[in-house]
Design goal:
Length: 54
């Protein structure tokens, strides 16, 4: 089984860490994962929150 873990910012890494530990502890050669970092920093929602007029 292949699993794709997608995270964007530090809080997401903290939430996904137990999942990675569980996958790695299984010792199952058929269980593989990839971690994808989107580069998101949490301020992409534009408008009044960031002071921009997008």
């Amino acid at each position: 089984m292949k699993i794709l873990l997608v995270v964007g910012a530090r809080p997401n890494f903290m939430k996904i860490a137990p999942i990675i530990r569980a996958i790695e502890s299984k010792n199952d050669s058929n269980l593989k994962y990839k971690l994808v970092h989107t580069g998101a920093v949490g301020w992409q929602s534009c408008g009044e929150d960031c002071g921009s007029s997008c």
